[in-house]
Amino acid sequence: MNFHITALVPELFFFCIVLALMVQSLGTKEWKPPVERWLPFGSCAAFFVAITGFHLSGSMFWDVYKVDLMSQFFKIVLAFGFYVTVLNASRQPTLEEGKRADYYMLLGFSTLGLMMLSSAVELITIYLALELASYSMYAVIPLRAKDKGAAEAGIKYIMFGAVATALALYGLSYIMATQHTTYIAELMDKSWSFADQPMAVVGLSLFLGGMFFKLALFPFHFWCPDVYQGASNETAAFVATMPKMGAIVVLCRLAVLLKPGLEITTILAVLGAASMTFGNLSALAQTDIKRLLGFSSVAHAGYIMVGLVSGTPEGIGAAAFYGMAYLVMNLLVFWIVCRVASDGRNLKLSDLNGLYKKAPVLAFSLAAGAFALVGLPPTMGFMGKFFLITSAWDHGYNWLVITLVVNSAIAIYYYLSLFRHAFTEESEPSQAAPPDNGWFASAGAGMLAAAVLIIGMIPAPLFNFAINAGKTLYGITVTMAGGHH
Predict the structure, then answer these.
(1) Rounded CA separation 70/473 (Å)
(2) Rounded to 5 degrees, what angle do the CA atoms 321, 323, 329 make?
(3) pTM (2 d.p.)
(4) pLDDT, position 31
(5) How far apart are CA 293 and CA 149, in angstroms?
(6) Residue 32 confidence (pLDDT) above 60
(7) What is the rounded distance in angstroms from the CA atom of residue 320 to the CA atom of residue 330?
(8) Which of 171, 292, 313, 427 is most buried, by the most CB atoms less than 10 A from its CB?
(9) pLDDT, tens digit, for every residue of 402-453?
(10) pLDDT tens digits for 296-349?
(11) Helices assigned H by DSSP within 220-312
């Protein structure tokens, strides 16, 4: 079973935080200190612990759980995302007072499941980790005081989640029946062409369907805008970013089975193209900001497919890097949505009017986030798209790369309308709560905007990490200072 406790330090540290939250949510009212006092420090420590574990490696539990560069890259990203989400939700107006510890405990369990998902290299383990990450989401989404839309969002997410889970399990049974193994390392040696193994190809397509649901890829995207709109702003920030990282890391691991030209690779490419186009065209018509971001994440799911179909370590590294960029860009935009809606309401585009006068730091940071989501230089969104395009060109899917470029042009229109409302529209909405313009709001927005710009200008350290992670999936040895292999 070869169990190394040192290789599991990030997960174990995180598990301790979740246990503390669990004890606090079971405890009496007199529990001190309140969760908002200690959890930001705990989650910040978890982020640093994840960074220190970047060179760990090893496989354990009969090789179903693998600690490698890919898993550590995503654990760092997830720990960062959890830290920002906790800070973001620490001033949540639409959460009832007695439910705070429970709320964070559920978010923590979901993140723990996603961390385990990033190390799972066997299909049944992937499925179990995915369920651990999903169940707490089903409970968190409806938590929005006195709002009927939140209950509707929760029901939609559960229904779609149940269908996607059933599809994934059904596909898993087909893979086991035809390929006689569930280990990704052994599945790499099997044939995945429809002529040789029709049942296995159908099974893998269905299993991937479960991941597409998490990623909100067309045609599994229907829940996405509705859930963003119904959940509270702070919960939507979590749902929009973290579960997608889990889906991306599984797709990166499964992409080693795909070669350009296989039927299943072409299915991924077609779904990616449909997802980009549908997401961007639907977003053009939205006035509710969270619905707009919902359709935008459908489009971004399509962009990530571009890296996965190339069948190269660079492509998988580019997909991982873009996943990280997507998380930071979206957390930045949601941070500003949560601060402008200081009373917890859903924002319309017109609510941003005149933001640059009332909260200049928020307006500038919103501009950085919108430019990054379009993919304009010098932001990390531009570098992420650039790496995706260069990794996929000349691997048989040039039409998909061209689709991505055309779609980025369509997307300029609705992302820049965020910018336009914040900077040029004068008619301010009356009788609405003013934006939260304190030092906390400005510092968080400024730091996230700085991350988006700095990583865009100096992407090499993180991108090389992602490329090396892609190479390890293909079994190419990567030499790193101080690491063991």
Answers:
(1) 8
(2) 100
(3) 0.90
(4) 62
(5) 17
(6) yes
(7) 16
(8) 292
(9) 999 999 888 888 888 888 888 887 776 666 777 777 888 888 888 989 988 9
(10) 999 999 999 888 888 888 888 999 999 999 999 999 999 988 888 877 778 888
(11) 223-230, 233-254, 263-284, 289-308
Please state, in angstroms and rounded to a whole number, the distance separating the CA atoms of residues 129 and 110.
9
420 CB-near residues (< 8 Å, 6+ apart): none
**Other beta carbons within 10 Å of 5:** 8
Within 10 angstroms of residue 278's Cβ, the number of other Cβ atoms is: 18
Residue 471 identity (one-letter amino acid): K
The token duo for 431 is: 């009788």
Residue found by looking up tokens 């309401």 in the block: 345
Least Cα distance to 479 among 64, 67, 57 occurs for 57
Token pair in block for residue 11? 């997960």
Beta strands (DSSP E) in 25-180 are 58-60, 65-67
Measured between alpha carbons, how far is 415 from 8 in angstroms, rounded to an integer?
40
Read off the tokens for 306.
């571009």
Write out the two tokens for 376.
């304009």
Read off the pLDDT of residues 165-184 as tens digits, 9 standing for 90 and up. 898 999 999 999 988 888 88
CA within 13 Å, CB half, 167: 19
